[in-house]
Amino acid sequence: MTSKIIKNEQWTVRDLNIKIKNGEIDKPKCQRKRKWYILPKKNDNSIPNEKNYILFLFDTKNSVHAITFGEVNVNENDKILVKKQNIDGNNRINALIH
What is the rounded (10 degree) CA torsion for 91, 97, 17, 3? Predict the structure, then answer.
């Protein structure tokens, strides 16, 4: 039986952005494509969009719901690196980065 380790970490938006830019976080090919629009569609606020999500966070002084990552070993230039792969929260990550 393989033992699993579950960690809870808190990152700032800046930390998340740096981890993505440094290649520490990867989006696996199985992850669905972006579903949220950047701005609301005309006359339709029912479709989730990045602008309304960010406004919601500011208006409610809320934090982002948990974003789930898994860790994988990746061989890059004959070095084994541990990278985080996004499992859940792709649209929230995109909204925060944009």
Answer: -10
Query: Bigger pLDDT: 90 or 28?
Result: 90
How does residue 2 score in pLDDT terms, banded at 50, 70 and 90?
low
Residues linked to residue 49 through DSSP beta bridges, in sequence order: 37
**Could you tell me which residues come within 8 angstroms of residue 95 by beta carbon, excluding any fewer than 6 positions away?**
36, 50, 53, 54
Q: How far apart are CA 91 and CA 21, in angstroms?
A: 17
Residue 29 to residue 76: CA distance in whole angstroms: 18
Residue with tokens 């800046």: 14
